[in-house]
Amino acid sequence: MRFDQCTNGNIFMHGWTKEQAVMSEHDKAILQELAKKMRSYAEKPEQEELMQLWRDHNDLKETRPLIYLDLENGWNELLPQEFTCECEGEMAQEWEMWLHKEIIYAEKVKCDKPIEAKFYIPYQAHDTKWGVDKKIIGDFYGGEAYTWESPITEDMMEDDFDVAGLIQIPQITIDWEATDAFTEIAHDVFDGILEVERRQWWWWGLELTHPYVDLRGFESMLMDFYDYPEKMHEILGRFTEGYLAKIDFLEQNKLFTANTGNCYVGSGGLGISGSLNPKAEVPTSAMDIWGFHESQETGEVSPEMFAEFVLPYQIKLAERFGLNYYGCCEGLDRRWEYVKQIPRLRRVSVSQWADIPKMSEMLGSDYVFCHKVSPTDIAVPEIDEDHIRTRLHQVLIDCKRCGNHVELIMKDNHTIANTPRNVYRWVEIAREEVAKVYG
């Protein structure tokens, strides 16, 4: 099977060309049978109960801890063992893969991800991004380790190069002919079974330090705080300008899609909300949706430098959104006094690099405690159930004591040791530990 083309809660990251937008009667029949099966799960009463649970959770009402699992690259080990692709067309195969994943969630994963009678399609779009590319060395698209050659050299920093001339404002163009073609096919296949809905990720997060590292290299970025502080501010300011222009463009052209429904948001978990665009309608502005901000690349940079160089630009971006999610892998306990300045901050990442008990005390009942459980727990052929239980139990004890609105998120799964049962068993164990601590 080719590398899985969906990501983060089954969101297609790209559309299909006009040439790929074809559907045979053979493939249509297969997809419709799968869609009917998916609908049968979506119509169960517990699905709406899960939607309400997430809604209350994100609105800071008292709930039990939620459990969410996103397999990411692990799908490439699980899927070949769980189903055989029967469709023949390239686009149809990707749709078949998507439907199977939803069914696997319902039948085998059984975490707190709701199943809805919807089929999501993207646009066929092109984003110019920053107009300057790094040279990748290694198999990036195969999910393997890689390195790159950064295009902005030391000489360019010394020579006071024209930042605005080199780093371009991102431009989005949509191939409407292709988009209309596969949208029409989706309606033909699924109408009467699943609701066809547009869902597009125009960015993963409003990243500032990630593109900086792409253009300068990681070691160079760390030195730039000292050697080229003015130039660093100029580059980060240019990225901020670019994102603000992109937000304006998406608002003006009504291209935002709601991430306030059954949608993966930030660096893990779902964005279902009753206080922010509760019906998950087409957003009229960024104030209707979640924003996401992080700076993993500066995890070992001092809190003071982070506050001086990164935070001011993140605040400018966060001001545009109705609610905000902050953080990914970086340990936020060391810079929390600054991060909490993000306006309308609601969801906060608590990673394995954070002091987890300290974060429990810091967040209290004022934020959603998005705990990233270690993916190494299920990345081995024989999982250590006692170890998993002990770690989960202690986190839950601390969270209950501090009144946290906690969710347990298993993600960043680059491998599951070709053992799908690891995935299913982890969810079972997490549920058992939640029951022990919360009743």
Automatic annotation (TrEMBL):
InterPro entries, per the entry: UROD/MetE-like_sf (IPR038071)
Gene3D superfamilies referenced in this protein's UniProt entry, alphabetically: 3.20.20.210
Taxonomy, superkingdom: Bacteria
Listed name of the protein: Uroporphyrinogen decarboxylase (URO-D) domain-containing protein
Native species: Butyricicoccus porcorum
